Amino acid sequence: QVQLVESGGGVVQPGNSLRLSCEASGFAPGYMMDDFAFGWFRQAPGKEREGVSCIANNHDLRWHADSVKGRFTISRDNADNVVYLEITNLKPEDPAVYYCAADLFFSTTRCNSPGQDMEHWGKGTLVTVSS
User: Could you tell me whether strands 125-129 and 10-12 are parallel, antiparallel, or unpaired per DSSP bridges?
Assistant: First the structure.
């Protein structure tokens, strides 16, 4: 079973930056990192989970939610089995639990959703804003 472990969350002042990481492991025989598309989703208290950024499995196609375009960037390092989310200019509305998800299929509609169609999930990493 694919396992995903997020890290990099913490308390950040508004306007500052941070990088979240998602380490993948447990691929079944015949599968490897670049077989999977990855997405970052977030859920703030009292709100529905929403898609933030996604990256395709075998090419450079990416998707970012309108609310984070120009501030968030998703990337991947298949050799290290890691997916990143670089966050800049953190806004007061960005605090949430950020989840990493993986699936064998990529689509922008799958990303722009609560992510229920994504098969594999991490447990999340918490990002909070401090003043």
Answer: parallel
* Overall size of the chain counted in residues: 131
The encoded tokens of residue 114 equal 């609560």
CB atoms within 10 A of CB 56: 18
Q: Which H or E element spans position 80?
A: none
The CA-atom distances, in angstroms, between 21 and each of 47, 66, 67, 81 are 23, 21, 20, 10
Which residues face 42 on adjacent strands? 50, 98
Please report, for residues 27, 78, 91, the alpha-carbon distance to residue 114 in angstroms, rounded to integers and kept in the order given: 24, 25, 21
Q: How far apart are CA 58 and CA 34, in angstroms?
A: 6
> 87 burial class (0-12, 13-18, 19+ CB within 10 angstroms)?
buried
Q: What is the pLDDT of residues 36-62, one digit of tens each?
A: 999 999 999 999 999 999 999 877 799
